[in-house]
UniProtKB/TrEMBL annotation:
It comes from Brassica rapa subsp. trilocularis. It catalyses: D-fructose 6-phosphate + L-glutamine = D-glucosamine 6-phosphate + L-glutamate. The gene is A03p046320.1_BraROA. Residues 51-174, 206-349 form the SIS domain. The lineage of its organism: Eukaryota, Viridiplantae, Streptophyta, Embryophyta, Tracheophyta. Keywords: Aminotransferase, Glutamine amidotransferase, Repeat, Transferase. Its EC number is 2.6.1.16. This is glutamine--fructose-6-phosphate transaminase (isomerizing). It is an enzyme of class 2 (transferase). The chain holds residues 306 to 664 of 664 of the full protein. It comes from the Eukaryota.
């Protein structure tokens, strides 16, 4: 039933809209809601329970993945760094792969195993090579993903890596309030994704405006640098329009030269510790008459588009480490609609395979 397109025209479209449910399945049985001060909110990752101590004692934790799976690891890196604290002795290598069969990732797995690292798999495919060859792991349980462009696997991978950070950090008293806020955020995340999916028509309108463009830049930083990379990856792989994710802090070191009244530039400026820096990027782009699309938190549209030509996309605000899950959805929808409007194959873009099993 899952491999049926149901009411949708394409698998990618179905998989984008499935995210409230796939995220719920990813978290099912893994979040402890808590009950007063005696039972704190926490996570339970069965597949790692015999290995968590070793992971905590690692000298380093290294994440390995390609394409979207790489971006998912990048999106979760700051929360892992924040909650895992000092790590020491030997290494833990975490292999992130939707298919569990990517040749480059598998090769890195063989190398890490030979060198004695503890190998953890995060995959969507039970029985896949990566699931079998790692010492332990977590299945993301997002359901079959048929579209070549990874969508729901990306958001579930991030959720699993945030849960991994919570599990590793679970014995640190000083971060308990922060961890509990993240657990609450996770529990409400499917609702927030459901809310952001209502932007479907708005993203279709935007796609209509961009249909003949040659290029789209996407500026992000902090937690949402990964969103910029992943949004640009979605646009280029399915709509065949050039798109580039750029670290906003790098703007003055080159990309600013491209800014004029014509080139569309998406800036991710939702509220988090990087917000004021992103506001200043927006001002500088306005000053150069940039053609901006700003993704901002609910209620911020008027202020971000107050000067210059700008289209604002308002998204619900969530805990900073979960914001990439919400923010990628409008960009997935934009990529989808751009592709349909440009008349390209959504589910099987030219030259690409769902799983890259050769080097
Ligand atoms: C994503 O939309 C791509 N099709 C691609 O980058 C993919 O994520 C990459 O090939 C890794 O695949 P995996 O997660 O199955 O290992």
């Amino acid at each position: 039933e899952q491999i049926n397109k149901g009411k949708y025209d394409h698998y990618m479209q179905k998989e984008i809209h499935e995210q409230p449910e796939s995220l719920t399945t990813t978290m099912r049985g893994r979040l402890i809601r808590g009950g007063g001060s005696r039972k704190p909110k926490a996570v339970l990752l069965g597949g790692l329970k015999d290995h968590l101590k070793t992971i905590r004692r690692s000298r380093r934790i290294v994440f390995i993945g390609c394409g979207t799976s790489y971006n998912a690891a990048l999106a979760s890196r700051p929360i892992l760094e924040e909650l895992s604290g000092p790590i020491y002795r030997e290494d833990t290598a975490v292999f992130v792969s939707q298919s569990g069969e990517t040749a480059d990732t598998l090769l890195a797995l063989e190398y890490a195993r030979e060198n004695g690292a503890l190998c953890v798999g995060i995959t969507n495919t039970v029985g896949s090579s990566i699931a079998r060859k790692t010492h332990c792991g977590v299945h993301i349980n997002a359901g079959a993903e048929i579209g070549v462009a990874s969508t729901k696997a990306y958001t579930s991978q991030i959720v699993v890596m945030v849960m991994l950070a919570l599990a590793i950090g679970s014995d640190t008293i000083s971060s308990q309030t922060r961890r509990e806020a993240i657990v609450d955020g996770l529990l409400d995340l499917p609702n927030k994704v459901r809310e952001v999916l209502k932007l479907d028509e708005e993203m279709k309108d935007l796609a209509q405006l961009l249909i003949d463009e040659q290029s789209l830049l996407v500026f992000g930083r902090g937690y949402n640098y990964a969103t910029a990379l992943e949004g640009a990856l979605k646009v280029k792989e399915v709509s065949l329009m050039h798109s580039e994710g750029i670290l906003a802090g790098e703007m003055k070191h080159g990309p600013l030269a491209l800014v004029d009244e014509n080139l569309p530039i998406a800036v991710i400026a939702t509220r988090d510790a990087c917000f004021s820096k992103q506001q200043s990027v927006i001002q500088q782009l306005h000053a150069r008459k940039g053609r901006l699309i700003v993704m901002c938190s609910k209620g911020d549209a008027a202020s971000v588009s107050s000067s210059g030509s700008c289209r604002a996309i308002e998204v619900p605000q969530v805990e900073d480490c979960l914001q990439p899950v919400v923010n990628i959805v409008p960009l997935q929808l934009l990529a989808y609609h751009l592709t349909v409007l440009r008349g390209h194959n959504v589910d099987q873009p030219r030259n690409l395979a769902k799983s890259v099993t050769t080097q």
